[in-house]
Amino acid sequence: QSALTQPPSASGSPGQSVTISCTGTSSDVGGYNYVSWYQQHPGKAPKLMIYEVNKRPSGVPDRFSGSKSGNTASLTVSGLQAEDEADYYCTSYAGSSNLVFGGGTKLTVL
Amino acid sequence: EVQLVESGGGLVQPGGSLRLSCAASGFTFSSYWMHWVRQAPGKGLVWVSRINSDGSSTSYADSVKGRFTISRDNAKNTLYLQMNSLRAEDTAVYYCAKGGSRVFDNWGQGNMVTVAS
């Protein structure tokens, strides 16, 4: 499967909101409500932030939210904080027990 | 608390073999699908392989099919990745991850594999 498409970078000032997109096809993002988002700080393991498009695991701040429209999913980080600076990756179920990753977006807090 | 601890990485020559292990604790290992995901230096995450809860079903990325074998020992709460015919492009940090077929809900700290002569 082809990787999902994410912008390579995004940025915002503290307190602002930023949205990161994740574009796939009707065979993955558009076909299933199984989009997840992961946060990865440099040298660290990824951490699940959003699953099933818009659900937050316990302990993830409600500043993080997810949505989907057609073949594009989005992660919005509201009230940006310095610790939100990280790489963000989306994944989507693509059928037949397969998962596909996005290329990642580096979020910079200005 | 869920813990996943990878081991077995290191430096290996092209064409060589390596076996990664992932020791799991803090959850009922035998109830969950497990995955291997890798990240080449400075690059993004790439799914490598997955195995279902009882080990009866496996799947691989095209780039490793026929060279890598995923397995598990539910009695030992351990996941494995046998890597044969290693290539330079297999150089990466390898993560084990817990989850179903649709999400990775916990990750190990990662283990570096370097393929070089």
Can you put this structure into words, describing what you see?
The complex is a heterodimer of chains A (about 110) and B (about 120). The N and C termini of chain A lie far apart (about 35 Å). In chain A, about 0% of the residues lie in helices and about 45% in strands. Chain A is an all-beta fold and about 110 residues long. In chain A, the strands form 2 sheets. In chain A, strands 1, 3, 4, 7, 8 and 9 form a 6-stranded mixed beta sheet that branches. Chain A has a 3-stranded antiparallel beta sheet with strand order 2-6-5, with no helix packed on it. In chain A, strand 5 and strand 6 form a beta hairpin. Chain A has strands at about 10, 20-25, 35-40, 45-50, 65-70, 70-75, 85-95, 100, 105-110. With about 120 residues, chain B is mostly beta strands. Chain B contains no helices and 11 strands.
Give a quick precis of the structure.
The complex is a heterodimer of chains A (110) and B (117). By secondary structure, chain A is mainly β. Chain A is built from no helices and nine strands.
Low-confidence stretches of chain A: none
Instruction: Give Rg of chain A in angstroms.
Output: 13 Å
First CA to last CA of chain B: what distance?
40 Å
> Largest sheet of chain A at a glance?
6 strands, mixed
Largest interface: A-B, 26 and 20 residues
Give the averaged pLDDT of chain A, no decimals. Answer: 95
| Count of DSSP H/I helices of chain B | 0
Q: pLDDT average of chain B, as an integer?
A: 95
Shape of chain A: globular
Distance between the termini of chain A: 35 Å
Describe the structure using short key phrases.
heterodimer; A: 110 residues; mainly beta; six-stranded mixed β-sheet; B: 117 residues; 11 strands
Spell out the blueprint of helices and strands.
The complex is a heterodimer of chains A (110) and B (117).
Chain A: E1 9-12, E2 18-23, E3 35-40, E4 47-50, E5 64-69, E6 72-77, E7 86-93, E8 99-101, E9 105-109
Parallel strand pairs in A: 1-9
Antiparallel strand pairs in A: 2-6, 3-4, 3-7, 5-6, 7-8, 7-9
Chain B: E1 3-7, E2 10-12, E3 18-25, E4 34-39, E5 45-51, E6 58-60, E7 68-73, E8 78-83, E9 92-98, E10 106-107, E11 111-115
Parallel strand pairs in B: 2-11
Antiparallel strand pairs in B: 1-3, 3-8, 4-5, 4-9, 5-6, 7-8, 9-10, 9-11
